[in-house]
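Fill in residues.
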């Protein structure tokens, strides 16, 4: 078996299917599994249905595929005829032979015309309304008379053709006529033969019906049956259902097997070619499906990668925008502070002359370690010393002013300037040392 295109799991399923079905051709097993999407249980159930004569679950087509009925494409086997009647000698005998021949010819022609005319009315009466019922009734009647026989296909002719086409199997069609000569012996001796039963069950689907029923009558016309009993073998050839063999009249079991074997051996190559083409088509479809799935996976992976990159770019952009916004806010804050310092610088009272009455000298210690000494009027407020420190370039942007001992925070930012205490009211003395604390440190 060619393992190209199959995984180890698929190869194992093929071997399991061959083991449980007993099919000889392992390529046929592979073809069946491929058509059922490698579902071992479904494939086996379908095979079991066909083997037991039940239509496939997929045989839902009510219309039969067209069947090519060309005698140049089929083996035709007829019942053995008796020895031919010799032509009489002499003028009288010759004249009688000619008269008899003309009479038989005229009678045969007239009989054919009358039969064709009557068939116009019979065809109206034989409208097929329940093809499945016709088949099942024939099977029931046949089982009562002849219990030994190949497995009948328990479906319509259309279903049998569609299943044979789908399963790439030979379809053996038997049309029964109770009124024909040799029908009873053919059914009792030939079709009931164990070797015939085994041969048909192993190689073919077997469909049968009585030509007295509308379904059987219709099929007899479609295959142009004239002599009964008649068997035809139908199978797929060049993508068309073709009658490959026709067996008319009674014959022995051995002769029937020989005839069927001849038809099967000469036409098996067509089914093998169809199996090969279908297998290549299914493998190509499977490969294409796998390639499509791989492409979709790759496409999804690329899309996911692009999505992640986009998210990373957006996140980086948001971070950058946040940094820029923060920097802009900081810049604006510094600009606002500079602008406020410029405004408050004009509000800082001028420094009194040394020794001027009511003067208080205050020492400020900045966080950077810088010492500042400045004279203020005792009537100046805490707001004034706050503005002085705030406007100094070495002063932190956010700060508070505390005394040394006992330590206390001077409230220099009252809402109403009139409520701010003067330096004397705040308890500050000359040479007072005040500490500037950085609130952002």
């Amino acid at each position: 078996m060619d393992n190209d295109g199959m995984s180890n799991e698929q190869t194992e399923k093929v071997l399991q299917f061959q083991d449980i079905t007993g099919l000889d051709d392992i390529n046929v097993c592979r073809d069946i599994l491929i058509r059922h999407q490698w579902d071992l249980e479904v494939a086996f159930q379908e095979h079991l249905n066909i083997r037991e004569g039940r239509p496939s679950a997929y045989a839902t087509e009510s219309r039969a595929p067209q069947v090519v009925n060309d005698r140049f494409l089929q083996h035709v086997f007829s019942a053995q005829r008796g020895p031919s009647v010799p032509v009489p000698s002499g003028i009288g005998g010759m004249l009688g032979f000619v008269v008899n021949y003309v009479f038989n010819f005229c009678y045969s022609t007239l009989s054919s015309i009358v039969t064709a005319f009557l068939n116009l009315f019979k065809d109206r009466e034989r409208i097929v309304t329940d093809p499945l019922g016709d088949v099942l009734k024939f099977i029931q009647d046949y089982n009562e008379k002849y219990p030994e026989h190949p497995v009948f296909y328990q479906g319509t002719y259309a279903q049998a053709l569609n299943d044979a086409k789908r399963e790439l199997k030979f379809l053996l069609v038997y049309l029964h006529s109770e009124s024909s000569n040799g029908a009873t012996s053919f059914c009792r001796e030939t079709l009931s033969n164990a070797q015939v039963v085994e041969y048909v069950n192993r190689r073919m689907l077997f469909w049968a019906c009585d030509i007295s029923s509308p379904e059987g009558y219709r099929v007899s016309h479609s295959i142009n049956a004239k002599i009964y009993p008649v068997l035809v073998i139908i199978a797929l050839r060049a993508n068309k259902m073709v009658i490959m063999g026709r067996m008319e009249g009674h014959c022995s079991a051995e002769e029937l097997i020989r005839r069927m074997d001849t038809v099967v051996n000469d036409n098996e190559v067509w089914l093998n070619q169809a199996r090969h083409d279908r297998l290549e088509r299914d493998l190509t479809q499977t490969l294409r499906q796998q390639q499509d799935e791989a492409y979709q996976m790759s496409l999804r992976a690329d899309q996911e990668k692009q999505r992640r990159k986009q998210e990373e770019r957006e996140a980086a952009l948001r971070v950058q925008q946040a940094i820029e916004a923060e920097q802009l806010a900081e810049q604006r804050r510094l600009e606002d502070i500079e602008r406020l310092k410029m405004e408050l610088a004009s509000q800082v009272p001028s420094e009194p002359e040394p020794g001027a009455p009511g003067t208080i000298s205050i020492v400020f210690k900045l966080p950077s370690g810088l010492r500042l000494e400045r004279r203020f009027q005792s009537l100046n407020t805490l707001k004034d010393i706050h503005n002085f420190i705030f406007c100094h370039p070495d002063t932190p942007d956010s700060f508070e002013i505390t005394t040394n001992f006992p330590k206390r925070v001077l409230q220099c930012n009252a809402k109403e300037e009139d409520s701010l205490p003067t330096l004397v009211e705040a308890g500050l003395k000359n040479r007072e040392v005040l500490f500037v604390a950085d609130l952002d440190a």
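The CA atoms of residues 238 and 273 lie 9 Å apart.
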